[in-house]
Specification:
Glutaredoxin; 7-stranded mixed sheet; two-stranded antiparallel sheet; elongated; alpha+beta; 14% strand
């Protein structure tokens, strides 16, 4: 609406200016009355039409790209030693991208659980480092599992883009995410339900380490994943 009003005002002002300049004579050249009014009318019409188009376009609500970390006043991650809840999703993608039956993932003795959401750009910046850690520790018996509320196609594209070969769950319910204390209570818009969180789970499903929602707090990827590597080495040794 602001643009439409501005176009109308500008058009009216230009019309008045053209009417004034019609009386101005430079040398032997004088702007004919018909030409000035026709040109002015066309210009005003064009501006008004542009404003009308702007007004007629549907105004879609904008979604936040990043939820401010300042809203993270509650919903802290699971505590060290706490039992991990069931890791459920609508479906799972195997290492080769194929479907795995069953809604609940079976974890290994030592498992890195990555709860992520595409809305958070830090999920992308952390992905290469997580892939490196998986390559380093997979042969030592450390498994990785990812879970997200995003749709299957989104999770599959993300996994392919970053060469993620571990089990990846899609369309997890907000209730599942809430059990991990990773629900984004600051923005419950669809697609923004997750506060990205990384857990290290040990024998018996107990939490050994968590990143304190580092991506949500915009922490450095290298430093956070270095802490994760130290925690894994401590368990292995």
């Amino acid at each position: 609406m602001t643009f439409a009003f501005a176009f109308a005002v500008i058009g009216a002002v230009l019309l008045l200016v053209i009417a004034f300049l019609r009386k101005y004579q430079a040398g032997q050249i004088r702007l004919p009355r018909q030409v000035s009014w026709i040109a002015g009318g066309l210009l005003v019409g064009l501006l008004l039409f542009t404003g009308w188009v702007e007004l007629s376009e549907p105004q879609l609500p904008s979604l936040p790209l990043v939820v401010p970390a300042a809203t993270a006043t509650t919903n802290t991650p699971l505590e060290i030693g706490e039992q991990m809840p069931p890791l459920k999703a609508q479906g799972w993608l195997n290492n080769d991208g194929s479907e795995q039956p069953g809604s609940e993932a079976k974890l290994g003795k030592i498992t890195v659980v990555d709860i992520w959401g595409l809305w958070c750009p830090y999920s992308e910046s952390f992905a290469p480092g997580l892939v490196e850690l998986h390559e380093r520790y997979a042969a030592k018996g450390v498994s990785f599992v990812s879970i997200s509320t995003d749709e299957q196609s989104t999770v599959k594209d993300f996994a392919q883009r970053f060469s993620i070969s571990w089990l990846s769950g899609y369309q997890a319910s907000p209730q599942t995410i809430a059990r991990f204390n990773a629900l984004n209570t600051g923005a419950m818009t669809p697609g923004y339900e997750v506060r990205p969180t990384i857990y290290l789970i040990g024998t018996g499903g107990r939490v050994l380490w968590w990143d304190n929602q580092a991506r949500y707090r915009h922490c450095d990827a290298e430093e956070t994943l270095k802490e994760l590597a130290i925690a894994i080495d401590k368990v292995l040794n």
